[in-house]
Write a sequence for this structure.
């Protein structure tokens, strides 16, 4: 039975239109409206009493950082070309490929049209535009350099995207090899080992210790496999929920810093983000106390965030940045010394940019070193697991051959 849906759309000229359609699902309504040349803004399903309930549009999830970077760069170009703020927002809402981001930009345009400042309008969408973004835009509005600030934001976001890409790219191969190893071992325990068990039970005799251990593991794994699967899933779910809590995140962030080899990568990545974020905020004219607060909220490690808050508390009572920084081991001496020099010369933002660039290169070098180290280790691990199981399975065969000889 068809249901009545009310809709809000924009035509090719940007005019907001409203109406209603009957269809079997909201997806069909969206499809039909797009075929008519409209851009859907909202779809509401009417119940039998004539009331409306919101229907989520089939858009993508949270916009990717790459989409926000492209939006920022295009926005800066339009502002620099002389387009009015409202005209630029209208064009961006119409041409942005990510539909959720396009919807957010359109809402920002409407808020600005009603009299809100751009930073106020952006601040109403914290899941899309974080505090760093809003603070820099506010500083750009105050200083009359909005286009320059937007370009800086685009550059910062693009660096974050590139850093994530490098880390993911380097970790893909080791993760794939590890998963393949787990699957091979599970398949052998579930299917191959039981076959050999049946063969050896028919032959009789005493099996070698290694073979008996492998068969026992296989029997237990096959018997309790559903339980292992459920418990594993629950464990992963519980762990994710735990690290989302303040306590869990704080503990997990400390653990990550102490993990051999990987801890260095986590540390350098956090320092890169700290220096880049604080540097761009200070260069944009954001007050130091607000810049430190925003940095503590945006760095990717809770240990570093707490240290930045201590720095903020020290600066608030008149201390230099370098003094409280030196009291935390998470900041290497080089960082504190460079910031101290920056404070003496009045070029803290420049020093922070250099620190960010240095650790960005360090992260890339660490990732490459990890990849070079992990690849042979994982291959050896895979060979040891599979080879050990094969040897355990064929040891009775070797004994039989010896007896025949």
């Amino acid at each position: 039975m068809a249901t009545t849906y009310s809709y809000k759309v924009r035509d090719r000229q940007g005019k907001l239109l409203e109406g209603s359609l009957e269809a079997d699902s909201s997806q069909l309504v969206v499809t039909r409206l797009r075929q008519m040349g409209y851009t859907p803004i909202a779809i509401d399903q009417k119940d039998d009493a004539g009331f409306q309930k919101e229907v989520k549009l089939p858009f993508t999830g949270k916009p990717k950082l790459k989409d926000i970077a492209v939006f920022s760069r295009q926005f800066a170009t339009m502002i620099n070309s002389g387009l009015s703020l409202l005209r630029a927002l209208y064009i961006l809402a119409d041409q942005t490929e990510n539909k959720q981001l396009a919807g957010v930009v359109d809402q920002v345009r409407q808020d600005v049209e009603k009299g809100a400042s751009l930073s106020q309008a952006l601040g109403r969408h914290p899941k899309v535009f974080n505090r760093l973004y809003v603070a820099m835009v506010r500083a750009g509005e105050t200083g009359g350099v909005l286009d320059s600030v937007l370009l800086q934001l685009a550059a910062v976001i693009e660096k974050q995207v590139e850093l994530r890409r490098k880390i993911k790219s380097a970790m893909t191969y080791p993760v794939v090899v590890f998963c393949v190893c787990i699957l091979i071992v599970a398949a052998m325990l579930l299917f191959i080992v039981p076959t050999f068990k049946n063969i050896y039970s028919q032959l009789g005799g005493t099996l070698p210790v290694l073979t008996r251990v492998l068969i026992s593991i296989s029997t237990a794994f096959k018997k309790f496999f559903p339980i292992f699967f459920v418990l594993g899933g629950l464990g992963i779910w519980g762990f994710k929920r735990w690290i989302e809590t303040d306590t869990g995140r704080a503990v997990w962030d400390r653990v990550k810093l102490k993990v051999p080899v990987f801890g260095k990568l986590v540390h350098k990545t956090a320092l890169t983000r700290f220096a880049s974020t604080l540097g761009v905020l200070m260069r944009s004219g954001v007050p130091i106390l607000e810049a430190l607060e925003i940095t503590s909220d945006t760095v990717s490690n809770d240990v570093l965030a707490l240290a930045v808050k201590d720095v903020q508390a020290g600066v608030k009572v008149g201390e230099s940045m370098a003094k409280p920084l030196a009291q935390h081991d998470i900041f290497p001496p080089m960082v504190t010394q460079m910031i101290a020099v920056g404070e003496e010369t009045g070029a803290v933002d420049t020093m922070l940019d250099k620190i960010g660039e240095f650790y960005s290169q360090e992260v890339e070098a660490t990732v490459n070193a990890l990849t070079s180290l992990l690849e042979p280790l994982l291959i050896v691990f895979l060979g040891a697991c599979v080879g050990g199981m094969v040897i355990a399975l064929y040891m009775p065969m070797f004994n039989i051959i010896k007896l025949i000889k």
In short: Residues 48-60 have pLDDT under 50 and may be disordered.
